[in-house]
Amino acid sequence: MQKKLTNQLIIMTDEHTRKVLNCYGNTIVKTPNLDQLAKRGTVFSNAYCNVPICVPSRASFATGQYAHTSGHWDNATPYTGKPESWGHALQRSGIQVGSIGKLHYRNSEDAVGFDFQTLPMHVVNGVGDVLGCVREPLPRRWKALSMAEDIGPGETNYNIYDRQVASEAVKWIKGKATSTKPWTLFVSLVAPHFPLIAPTEFYELYENMKLMPSKPKPKPEHPWLEAMRNCQLMDNFTPEKTRIALTSYYGLVSFIDDLIGKILAAVKSLELEGSTQIIYTSDHGDNIGERDLWGKSNFYEESVGIPLIMAGPDIPVSKVCQTPVSLIDIYPTILDTANLSVESRKPGKSLTKIANEQDNNDRVIFSEYHAMGSKSGGFMIRKGRWKYVHYVGMRPQLFDLQSDPEEMSDLGEKQEFADVTQNLEAELRLICNPETVDKNAKLDQMEIIELNGGAEAVVKKGGFGATPPPGVNPEYASTES
Q1: Contact predicate 202/254, CB 8 Å
Q2: Predicted model pTM
Q3: HSE (CB half, 13 Å, CA atoms) of 303?
Q4: Residue 284 — φ and ψ, nearest 5°?
Q5: Contact yes or no for 168/115 (Cβ under 8 A)
Q6: Which of 208, 216, 275, 429 reaches 20 to 30 Å from 463, CA-CA?
Q7: Which phi-psi region, left, alpha or beta, contains residue 286 (left: φ > 0; alpha: ψ -120 to 50)?
Q8: Alpha-carbon distance 445 to 438, whole Å?
C-alpha cells in the first residue's frame, strides 16, 4: 500500500554557512526557530552544495544533476527549464507546486516546473554576470571592494524583499487551510547574502561580542586561491570593518531565523506539521572572513558546507545524521515523498532514506567550480575523513577533516599521503574528466562573452556584485573608483 501523500515545504536561504547555526554547534548565534525544527527532525551534519556559487548551485538543486552534466557553469548560465526539475515531475503527477522568492533562473516565462512564481528574483536582464565568464586572463572585480563598505546596522532592499517573501509565504500557507490535496511550496530568502547590513534589532544582538574570524590567510597560499583573491578584490577589510561585517552576518542569520519562524508558525497554526515535510537548506555557504575571504567560490567548509535540516512524516526525530549529503539529494527526496520514481541516472539519493539508515561516512560527495575568479576548473571529493580538491593544471589540496576540521594543514603535496590523493583522484575521475569539463566550460563561456560584445567590452562594463531584488537596478563597477 502506498504511503499517504504529504505536503512539502522547502525553505532556502542564500550564503548561509552551517557554521553559524546553533543546532550545528555554534553557541553564540541565536537561531531558536531553526533549532526547534532540528529537534523535531534530522540534522545532516555533513551537507554540501555541488557548486559554491548561486546560479549553478540552484540548477543542481532543481535538476538533481551535477553542473558539468547540465551545462550550468556560472552566474551567466541560468536554469531555463532543461533538464527537467523536480517541479516538472510534481506537475505531471497533479501536485500543485509553486515558488515564492529568489530563484536566480533566467526569467519568469520559462517552464521551470512551477505553477506560479511569486516575487521571483532572476538573473539580471535574463543574462546574469557575464564578467564571471572571463577567465583567461582573470579580470579585476572592483565591485567586490564594496563588501567592506556596505556593512553594519541598517536596512537594505534585500531585507525588505525577504520580509515580503516571508509574508507571502505565510499568506499562501494559510490559504491552504481547507485544502485536501497535497502541495509543494519552495520559499527562497536572500539573507544572509551580502551586503552585510542587518536590521538594527538583530545587529544589536551581537554588537558587544567583538566577533572576529579565527583563521589567518595561508602562507604560502595555493596559486588557484591566490589568483581568485587577485580577481575578487577584498583587500580593503580592516580589523574594524571585519568585526562589523561579521556582526552583521550573525545578525542576518538571526533575521532569517525570525522570518522562518513566522512561516513555520503558519504551518503549525493549521495543524499541518504532521502532514508536511519541511526542508531547510542554503544554496551555498560563506567564508565569513576566515582567511580574509568573504562570500563563497572555494571549497573550504565555510563556503561549500551548508545547513540541511528535515522534519515531518517518516523523518527521525532529534537525530544527527553523519552521512555526507548534498543538494542533488533533494531532487530524489521530493519525488520520494510524492511517491514518484526517480531516473536511475540521477546521482542523488532520497534524504528520507539516508536519514533512516545507518550512517555511511564513506559516501562520496562531489562539488565543482568554474565561475568568477577561477583560473581553471576546481573539483572537490569528500569521502570519509578526507577532502580532496583538484585544480586543472595546478597542484591538488588534501585535508584530513577528522584531525584537522578547520582545514589549517594542506597535505596535498606530502609524500606520505600520496596514496590517499591518488585514490581520491580516481574517485573524481569516475564522476568526470576534469580536463574535459574545464575545456567545455571555457568554450561555453567564450561563446557567452562573444554574444555580449567580446571580452574587452565585458570587462569595460564591469560587474554588479549581488543580483538586485525585483524593481531595483544593478550597480556596475568597472574601475577602482
Answers
A1: yes
A2: 0.97
A3: 22
A4: -175, 180
A5: no
A6: 216
A7: beta
A8: 11
DSSP assignments along 11-76, one per residue: EEESS--TTS-GGGT-SSS--HHHHHHHHHSEEETTEE-SSSSHHHHHHHHHHSS-HHHHT--STT
SS3 of 179-233: the string is CCCCEEEEEECCCCCCCEEECHHHHCCCCCCCCCCCCCCCCCCCHHHHHHHHHEC
Instruction: Using DSSP, state whether 319 is helix, strand or coil.
Output: strand
In the chain, count H helices and then E strands. 14, 17
Angle (nearest 5°) at CA 80 between 447 and 468: 85
Judged by phi (left if over 0) then psi (alpha if -120 to 50, else beta), residue 42 lies in beta
Low-confidence ranges of the chain (pLDDT < 70): 1-3, 480-481
User: Would you say 252 and 294 are in contact if contact means Cβ atoms under 8 Å apart?
Assistant: no
Which residue type does 191 have?
A
Report how far residue 317's alpha carbon sits from residue 2's, in angstroms, rounded to the nearest whole number: 22
> Shortest CA distance to 258 belongs to which of 317, 311, 312, 199?
199
Structural element, H or E, at residue 309: strand 308-311
441-463: pLDDT as tens digits: 999 999 999 999 999 999 999 99
